[in-house]
């Protein structure tokens, strides 16, 4: 069931993992089973594109457009970030 | 009351460098159908008649969210023994908390699990006393418990709750660790907590029957390391090693009064679940005061914050920011002084004696299990 993060793979936050605005610390966090991961702006920007419909490729295009950065660089950075979440079971791909 | 608001307490705490807590353990009750001999509840259990009622808990959850708590762990005892469990989960989600149920599974029916699903429960942590009925029912002191738990696990899987399997291991069941890891994969658990028994609560009186051998402790570390590589991306392993056989102590609570807090069934607010063993501490009650007031200004929370309370060898040690001198409750239990270095540390004058005793406990093959009792009505 473990899939690779290929360009056509669709990343999705599984049940029990969600973005949350931490109103006390005034920052975004990713809430997951027994973990709360503080997100920086980049992490939040990437996860904001993860909607369970967009492919990894579509996500990198959207980010490149939005932030005016080279797509290859975005793909590398976003890929590393998302694979890290997959290893912790905070993200699935289908 | 001096008219201060939670915002004032937070500003005052921030100025003193005190972070807001991330996690709260709500011990809804000390009642439990099981009687595990390593139960982390205090030996003096809170009686049923003194338990907080629904309204008290709902208010505490709201105050916790206002204080900055993100993760709520509903535990016990057995939290399913509370008849208002569904209402409590609903209230916790309404407060904006990520809600985790820590349960043996006993007391959960398929219907109740569907109700918990509808109430918004985020995650379930299911305890495992052994990987077969003979072991699990003997350790839990509850006949039929294992079969019931397997049934509950199948309902959890059908509903699709994210699941963590939590297994406490000791000399009598450590050989079942590989089976426990396999079971977690079969149940579609995302995580397993592999905790070698820590000697607090009822476990302290059961050291001779539960203490793992040094070889068992080392073998467990090897099995966990191997499984982490083999199951990367499938199962996350959290590991609590056997600290009597370690050279450095655990970073208790991630630093006293920095990360988490605990509410006992009767409303006492504790810096950690074993803090009541430190008799010099006094605890505030959530019936009387706001949680923010207790967190930032309570005597028990301030007792071991920072490092000004530390003695040598901790005070001048470069590890003090990593492990905070270890566990205060263990320093109390083994060195007789809650401000002493945790005897697990090689630098503690009690370390050699503790390791000698650990090996004696581990060699006591005839030792019997002493089960935990039930709270009074």
How would you explain this protein's 3D organization?
The complex is a heterodimer of chains A (94) and B (377). Chain A is an alpha+beta fold and 94 residues long. Chain A has one domain (12-93): Coenzyme PQQ synthesis protein D (PqqD) (Arc Repressor Mutant, subunit A, Orthogonal Bundle). Chain A is built from three helices and five strands, in the order E-E-E-E-H-H-H-E. Chain A has a three-stranded antiparallel sheet with strand order 2-3-4, with helices on one face. A two-stranded antiparallel sheet of chain A has the order 1-5. In chain A, helix 2 (56-67) packs across helix 3. Chain A is globular. Chain A starts with 10 loop residues before the first strand and ends with a strand. The mean pLDDT of chain A is 94. Chain B has a domain at 21-254: Aldolase class I (TIM Barrel), CATH 3.20.20. In chain B, 36% of the residues lie in helices and 12% in strands. The A-B interface holds A 1-2, 14-17, 20, 22, 24-25, 29, 31, 33-36, 86-89 and B 10, 20, 22-23, 66-68, 70-71, 73, 96, 98, 100, 122-123, 125, 160-162, 164, 190-191, 232-236.
Question: What's the arrangement of secondary structure elements?
Answer:
The complex is a heterodimer of chains A (94) and B (377).
Chain A: E1 11-12, E2 18-22, E3 27-32, E4 35-38, H1 41-48, H2 56-67, H3 71-87, E5 92-93
Antiparallel strand pairs in A: 1-5, 2-3, 3-4
Chain B: H1 6-15, E1 23-27, H2 54-67, E2 71-75, H3 85-94, E3 98-103, H4 110-119, E4 123-128, H5 133-140, H6 145-159, E5 163-169, H7 177-186, E6 191-196, H8 207-210, H9 214-230, E7 236-240, E8 260-263, E9 269-270, H10 291-297, H11 299-303, H12 320-323, H13 328-335, H14 351-362
Parallel strand pairs in B: 1-2, 1-8, 2-3, 3-4, 4-5, 5-6, 6-7
Antiparallel strand pairs in B: 8-9
Helix pairs in contact in B: 1-10, 2-3, 3-4, 4-6
Subunit structure (chain B): Interacts with PqqD. The interaction is necessary for activity of PqqE.
GO biological process, one term (chain B): pyrroloquinoline quinone biosynthetic process
Pfam family, one (chain B): SPASM
């Amino acid at each position: 069931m473990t899939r690779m993060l290929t360009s056509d793979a669709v990343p999705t936050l599984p049940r029990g993992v969600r973005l949350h605005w931490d109103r006390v610390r005034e920052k975004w966090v990713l809430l997951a089973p027994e973990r709360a991961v503080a997100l920086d702006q980049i992490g939040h920007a990437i996860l904001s594109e993860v909607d369970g419909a967009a492919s990894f490729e579509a996500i990198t295009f959207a980010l490149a457009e939005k932030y005016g950065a080279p797509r290859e660089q975005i793909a590398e950075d976003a890929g590393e970030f998302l694979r890290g979440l997959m290893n912790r079971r905070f993200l699935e791909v289908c | 009351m001096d008219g201060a608001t939670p915002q004032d307490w937070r500003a005052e705490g921030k100025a003193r460098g005190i972070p807001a807590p991330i996690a709260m353990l709500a011990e809804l009750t000390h009642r439990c159908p099981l009687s595990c001999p390593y139960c982390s509840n205090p030996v003096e259990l809170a009686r049923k008649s003194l338990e907080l009622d629904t309204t008290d808990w709902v208010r505490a959850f709201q105050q916790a969210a206002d204080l900055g708590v993100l993760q709520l762990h509903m535990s016990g005892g057995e939290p399913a023994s509370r008849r208002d469990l569904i209402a409590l989960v609903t209230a916790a989600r309404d407060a904006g908390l990520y809600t985790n149920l820590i349960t043996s599974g006993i007391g959960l029916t398929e219907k109740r699990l569907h109700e918990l699903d509808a109430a918004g429960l985020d995650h379930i942590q299911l305890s495992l006393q052994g990987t077969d009925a003979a072991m699990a029912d003997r350790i839990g002191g509850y006949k039929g418990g294992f079969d019931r738990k397997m049934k509950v696990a199948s309902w959890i899987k059908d509903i699709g709750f994210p699941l963590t399997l939590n297994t406490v291991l000791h000399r009598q069941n450590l050989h079942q660790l590989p089976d426990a890891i396999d079971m977690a994969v079969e149940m579609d658990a995302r995580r397993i907590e592999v905790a070698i028994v820590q000697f607090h609560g009822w476990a302290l009186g059961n050291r001779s029957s539960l203490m793992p051998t040094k070889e068992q402790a080392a073998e467990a570390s090897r099995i966990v390391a191997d499984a982490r590589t083999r199951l990367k991306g499938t199962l996350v392993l959290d590991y609590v090693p056997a600290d009597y056989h370690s050279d450095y102590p655990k970073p208790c609570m991630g630093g006293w009064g920095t990360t988490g807090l605990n509410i006992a069934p009767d409303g006492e607010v504790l810096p950690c679940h074993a803090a009541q063993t430190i008799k010099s501490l006094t605890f505030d009650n959530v019936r009387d005061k706001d949680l923010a007031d207790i967190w930032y200004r309570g005597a028990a929370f301030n007792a071991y914050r920072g490092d000004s309370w530390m003695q040598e060898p901790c005070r001048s040690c470069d590890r003090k920011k990593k492990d905070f001198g270890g566990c205060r409750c263990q320093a109390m239990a083994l060195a007789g002084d809650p401000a002493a270095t945790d005897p697990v540390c090689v630098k503690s004058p009690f370390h050699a004696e503790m390791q000698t005793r650990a090996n004696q406990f581990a060699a006591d093959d005839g030792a019997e299990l002493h089960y935990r009792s039930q709270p009074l009505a």
